[in-house]
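subagent[fold] <- orchestrator: predict structure for attached chain, return tokens only, no commentary.
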Amino acid sequence: MQKKVLKVNPKDNVIVALQDLHAGESVHLDSADYTILKDIKAKHKFAALDFKDGDHIIMYGVLVGKANQSIKKGEVITTENVKHQSAKVEGKTATLSWTPPNIEKWKDRTFMGYHREDGQVGTENVWLFFPLVFCENKNIETLKEIFEKELLHDKASKHQLLLRSLLNGGTDADVAVEEEEQDTRIFKNIDVRFITHQGGCGGIRQDAEALGRLFAGYVNNPNVAGATVLGQGERR
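subagent[fold] -> orchestrator:
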């Protein structure tokens, strides 16, 4: 029989409806019966006991809210009868100690990578194009089109080459040769990526700051060699 309700944590004093429940319906959970007082939609919660104004609401085993009026057992929990509250966040209570693993056998190992001026090392070499405001998306798309046609030269995937070889009676070796021959990129050690977005205009300062931090993270990634950024003069 499919369960109708769920208590996420044994300490919880609210219960989750797993399906729509109707007023007057009785549900059973953990040797207790609950009568639903009002219709409750699936994924909403109801009181597992009677709450007085100011009583704590516990879910996931932690404080998540406080009743701002009396709530009867079986009554739906809403933003009207509960307001948010959380327990005080405590500082660090323990010290972690660990023994670093022995890395002697790897200390002289190397890999093909790209050294960056800040000391980081990347395994890819990517140049980014992105706008600071969505108004520049069209220009990014135009750059993408001309770069792909003139500099990057779209090539068939390995799977396309394999199918082409099979149709012509070729072998895997023929695929490898054709794959090598079709790589006519001018800058063979650089991948170019073009990014567009819908931010930068019409938002609040915090939105712009979040977008800026996102792009700063992209540019400072060790796999990124650099970036071309498009913006408009009136933007911060």
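orchestrator: received. Logging for downstream: Helices lie at 137-152, 158-167, 172-181, 205-219. The chain has a mean pLDDT of 86.
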